[in-house]
Hints:
Blueprint lengths: L7 H13 L7 H8 L9 H11 L4 H7 L5 H13 L5 H18 L105 H9 L2 H26 L13 H7 L13 E5 L5 E8 L4 E7 L2 H11 L8 E6 L3 E7 L5 E7 L5 E6 L4 E3 L6 E3 L3 H11 L17 H6 L10 E4 L8 E8 L5 E7 L2 H12 L10 E7 L4 E9 L6 E10 L7 E12 L4 H12 L2
Antiparallel strand pairs: 1-2, 2-3, 3-7, 4-5, 5-6, 6-7, 8-9, 10-11, 11-12, 12-16, 13-14, 14-15, 15-16
Helix pairs in contact: 1-6, 2-3, 3-6, 4-5, 5-6
Amino acid sequence: xxxxxxxxxxxxxxxxxxxxxxxxxxxxxxxxxxxxxxxxxxxxxxxxxxxxxxxxxxxxxxxxxxxxxxxxxxxxxxxxxxxxxxxxxxxxxxxxxxxxxxxxxxxxxxxxxxxxxxxxxxxxxxxxxxxxxxxxxxxxxxxxxxxxxxxxxxxxxxxxxxxxxxxxxxxxxxxxxxxxxxxxxxxxxxxxxxxxxxxxxxxxxxxxxxxxxxxxxxxxxxxxxxxxxxxxxxxxxxxxxxxxxxxxxxxxxxxxxxxxxxxxxxxxxxxxxxxxxxxxxxxxxxxxxxxxxxxxxxxxxxxxxxxxxxxxxxxxxxxxxxxxxxxxxxxxxxxxxxxxxxxxxxxxxxxxxxxxxxxxxxxxxxxxxxxxxxxxxxxxxxxxxxxxxxxxxxxxxxxxxxxxxxxxxxxxxxxxxxxxxxxxxxxxxxxxxxxxxxxxxxxxxxxxxxxxxxxxxxxxxxxxxxxxxxxxxxxxxxxxxxxxxxxxxxxxxxxxxxxxxxxxxxxxxxxxxxxxxxxxxxxxxxxxxxxxxxxxxxxxxxxxxxxxxxxxxxxxxxxxxxx
Length: 563
């Protein structure tokens, strides 16, 4: 049993460090689980929250590497400043940081905490040892093997754990426990080593043996057969004591430096956001955190970037969620799922800029966002953009992260890479028994995207996002003019959906070369503030039917597009 220190926070961390190693203090998830394990001193909720806040600050590795050195105080002050900035009491934060310093001083030693004494059995029951300094031990009955004279070791206290040395029973083999390392996961169960035993035989029974070490050696010398063994034991013991003293007083090997922004380390800290969160990533770099953020990291992929943020509180995360998942904006495509402990949102605006956002409140507030803003190309003065990565691309990327917090909604018009083109076809897509397919080799060679749809009435529609403004003007003149129409069949009018602030020009006629009815439509976004401004797009649609009259085709379109 590990005797608790006076401060319950220090006692709890010391117990965790002694049981699992100092690396268990670095990961808030591991620390939360360890604090709830049997045998750990119970903490008040606010005390546990403070310890988790310090662990999640990202500065515990620095505290660990500086433990017992001149840099320890500087590292502790930095941790206090960071955690106190989240609204915690300065005094309470100092107490929590002090608890980490106390625990890490011991766990930083190679092999974990080092005990100061070895206690020998004595008394009527030689299998029951007495701790050095115990009131139950008769004077002269215990023999301590301690550091060399003049060392600063307190003989009644463990210098690492600040606790009384435990009896041998506490050192008996225990069940396998989990041991954390500085890598990306939890290592295999590790079984503690067998207890230390005296290097000479102890009588199993009989009267109390009151001999000292010197008496044992004298008795051994009387028997020439055991003299060599006794001398070897004494020499080995003295050498061991000397090494222990040198290790305590001399320099310690520095702890290995862990790159917090290595892919494996970032994936471990943000694993709640996806089991394969950084699959395919090339590198991660730190960004300056904003107010209320613990950490901000950007991870680069071949054609996109992923921004990861850890927040100081769940309230701060929900503020960022409300800002990012704004359903009041007139997105051309939008879908979201909001839960108390997780959220997902995907949206695309009229310029083609698309975003996928998701977050998780537990076990620590974190969010991820991927956009296509870095890979977009502006068109020639039209206000629209053609994104190299579409919203369907970003959604596919999100699906590959394997986030298990919730199930995302279905993406609107997944056949369309461009949200603007999907917006033009929005009402047509509500028709039953219709089929759409991407058609990159369609009838329009100067198109950035083409999608062909067929409807149950026999109507064929071609939705086209042209490459640039010149191509837009060319196709508008070629298709919408009356040069190809049967005389008297050409009609042109404006259309508008006021609730969505969009409209455009509608032209329909009978084509002279094929006798088919043709309907041409284009999309223009209106100014929501009704200032008369217009925002043209590069999206057009061409509908055809072999037997309908132009008026019938226009009535069919009006039913699907305007109702």
